[in-house]
Design goal:
With about 50 residues, this protein is mainly alpha-helical. The chain is built from 2 helices and no strands.
Length: about 50
């Protein structure tokens, strides 16, 4: 996957995780674990402060 597309996908995943946390479907701890693993799988090169 191209890095730019991977970065965009990761931003979308982070937004989705924030939405899920805000609506009680995901805990902050779960979201943190997911957001730590996803960049490795996608090959992203950006760092987001969530």
């Amino acid at each position: 996957m191209k890095t730019q597309n991977a970065n965009i996908d990761f931003c979308g995943i982070v937004n989705l995780l924030q939405y899920l946390m805000a609506h009680g479907h995901c805990t902050e701890k779960e979201a943190q674990k997911i957001s730590e693993r996803v960049p490795e799988k996608l090959g992203t090169d950006i760092i987001l402060n969530t």
